Amino acid sequence: MVAAASVVVAVGTATGMLSALDDRHASDEAKPEVSSSPYLAPLPAVRTPSASPSPSASASPPRKNPEKTPGRTPTPTKEEKAERAEKADNGVVRENGSTAFVSTGLYRHPQSQVLDWVRANSGDPRLAVIASRIADHPAAVWFADYTPSTITARVRAVTSGAAAQGRVPVLVAYAIPGRDCGGASQGGAPDLDAYDAWIDAFAAGLGSAEAVVILEPDSIAQAECLSSGRRSRRFASLARAGRVLKAANPRVRVYYDAGHSGWNAAEKQATWLRQAGAASAASSDGVFSNVSNFHRTADEIAYDRQVLDALGGPASLGAVIDTSRNGNGAPPDGEWCDPSGRKIGRVPTLNTGESRIDAFLWVKLPGESDGCKGSPGTFSPSYAYDLAR
What we know:
Elements: H1 78-87, E1 92-93, E2 99-100, H2 113-120, H3 127-135, E3 141-143, H4 151-165, E4 170-173, H5 192-203, E5 211-215, H6 228-248, E6 252-257, H7 266-275, E7 286-289, H8 297-311, E8 318-322, E9 357-361, H9 381-388
Parallel strand pairs: 3-4, 4-5, 5-6, 6-7, 7-8, 8-9
Antiparallel strand pairs: 1-2
Helix pairs in contact: 3-9, 5-6, 7-8
């Protein structure tokens, strides 16, 4: 495992979803409410010299486009204006060029480890806190096991359930070959041809309603472990995956791996993202960051805007941030495995009030262990209670 990586420990398909709550509090820590989440494990935090993603604290090389500054959106080209007009058919175009979701609520999947625990432990004194602050909120549903024969039906079960409620599901595709560079979350498809076929089957279950796909956490930020040739082939497969997903359902938002604010410099990450198709409207709606990690929301917002500025592409590209466990920020010692003193972060919402930030999501389910407070990916009520109280 690379020291700077965000490790996801996958045990199986994570089933859980985030609820639609509009959080406009300035604090990272969530207010007393509840949510449910996915069936998977987290990405480790990284030891960083500073919690700030500001240019002065990063090793970013000189900007290729010095006229661009974080937070400023370039004047859209003729092609970008046409693309925005097309997107407006399925949503409301915001002032910053991104397209707002038509649905206002995120989908909470009725099956998750935390919900199973809540149903089975009605007399537990921790129940009220865990139920109200974690189990009642929507969280992402992970598809982390390579099962080609069932993936279409399993994806369809989530998307159809969400469509019936008029809500937006968040699905995590996590089966890239060589996953986690052979570390704790190793696994995935046997090769890229098999992965491409798995993505085709995944896309077949997306339906026609709005959905968010978090495409392969760590697959780009952690690509340093791959040879140049293997990295190029992986990125080509990811670009193809985005195109397939969006062709199957044009209302699906596909977001690519930006790592987090304590990992790669924004310019480097943007270069890799561009190679993986993240700058093309045909395959991408932007980037995601902080999945299963702990970095503060403000740091992620600043970092994601830097990445988007360096990435280029349509003005409609945005970012989504995993806020599930970042209420107290990342541990100063860089510990990633169920570190103590962490808190749940801002509740999931599609209305962030932040330019170019499309959503705050709970991609990682609070309470699912990284492997130090229980088996990797399993729900730990004591850990959940510590995060939520």
